[in-house]
User: Which sequence fits this backbone?
DNA sequence: CTGATGAGTTACAACTTCTAACGAACGCAA
DNA sequence: TTGCGTTCGTTAGAAGTTGTAACTCATCAG
């Protein structure tokens, strides 16, 4: 969302402003109808200009969506970094994640949802993903090994490309992966509405999983 | 996939056959390009007939996709029931789930992936979902409470609409939910390619989560 | 054999993304 | 201030899409 509005020529300022407004409208559409329903034409009409004008700002629908994905990743990374900067432990990180997800479920799904078979994220996006994992690893490294000194942790000791320069011990790596996959499991099913009508309280399930992750 | 080809009039036989072929082509398209890229026109062309002909068989794109979702749910329910019938424990159920998911990742995402904001699954689909959970509950009820005799399990004791007539004790309910959410967490991230390039072996993470679910 | 039912057709409307060509506005520089 | 080039927005149009309407023709039942 943070379009660079730094010192620039008037034309570049205008350009950035229009790009930002396009993305904002796009987010609105995505939030209400999902990413697959995003229409460049509809955005243009909303902004009072004709369809092809948008192609001055984005090469096409795909580039716009990629840009939104990038922003979504950055938004989560920023949320994590902010939490971490104010001394967040894994529990606080979990609640930051949950808050971020509930804030805009479709944004969450843009990052962690159903992938388009052919699509490959650009390198800078995967770099942001690494930053997110690094923040998580920091928090996990602050805990004793506990129940995560597992055989799989031993496997991770020799297969830690994703934690390349990170000093976290194997158990922390396993805990971080469990944190990620378990909370994603609860969150994605909750946001997708798979718990509706089951009767229990989804936040309590989230809390129970978090408890299990933090305690042992 | 199992279109009823029972005793019918010739016209109904033909109709069922064509419907089945449409769905088959649809599955191919979905597997290679995702559900959002499904095109009725393309299917018609593949089958050697003109676009609007398909509307004799499906009211529209949405109805076709809903039908595919229904089939996907049924397929998973059948897989679970077959596994359960041959005396599967939770571990065997987990491997059945994993096999089913890897068999056609887009089919998995059709069931557990990103939802369309407005969409509400028809009642018979939620009924199949309940059947799946019931099979899972059976397997979980066969295990001692273990670590799943939790505060959240107590909450479930009073909020078990989803396990209405099922005799499973609270700890089994909690275990079933953990089974579902944790394995879905690992599977969905794996199928979406979020583990690629991280270095570790996704099946081992799945196994580790399963181990944690079965042991305690 | 006849007549209703249903399948497939073409034609069309209303969308979509996206390209091409044009005009007009804008900002910079002489 | 006077150009002049860059960039923006326009319209026109191609090639798709979903979906409706009307028509033809085969098929099946009585």
Assistant:
């Amino acid at each position: 969302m943070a379009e660079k509005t730094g010192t620039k020529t008037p034309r570049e300022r205008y350009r950035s402003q229009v790009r930002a407004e396009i993305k904002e409208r796009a987010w609105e559409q995505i939030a209400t109808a999902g990413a697959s329903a995003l229409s460049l034409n509809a955005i243009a009409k909303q902004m009072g200009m004709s369809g092809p004008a948008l192609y001055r700002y984005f090469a096409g629908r795909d580039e716009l969506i990629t840009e939104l994905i990038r922003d979504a990743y950055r938004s989560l990374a920023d949320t994590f970094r902010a939490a971490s900067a104010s001394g967040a432990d894994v529990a606080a990180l979990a609640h930051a994640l949950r808050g971020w997800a509930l804030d805009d479920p479709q944004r969450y799904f843009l990052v962690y949802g159903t992938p388009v078979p052919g699509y490959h994220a650009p390198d800078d996006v995967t770099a942001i993903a690494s930053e997110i994992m690094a923040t998580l690893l920091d928090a996990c490294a602050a805990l004793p090994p506990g129940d995560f000194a597992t055989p799989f942790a031993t496997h991770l000791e020799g297969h830690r490309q994703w934690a390349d320069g990170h000093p976290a011990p194997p158990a922390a790596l396993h805990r971080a992966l469990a944190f990620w996959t378990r909370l994603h499991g609860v969150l994605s099913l909750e946001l997708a509405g798979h718990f509706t009508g089951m009767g229990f309280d989804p936040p309590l399930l989230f809390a129970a999983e978090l408890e299990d992750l933090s305690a042992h």
Summary: The radius of gyration of chain B is 20 Å. Residues 9-11, 39-42, 51-52, 55, 60-61 of chain B lie near DNA strand D (CB under 10 Å from a C1'). Confidence is low (pLDDT under 50) at residues 1-5 of chain B.
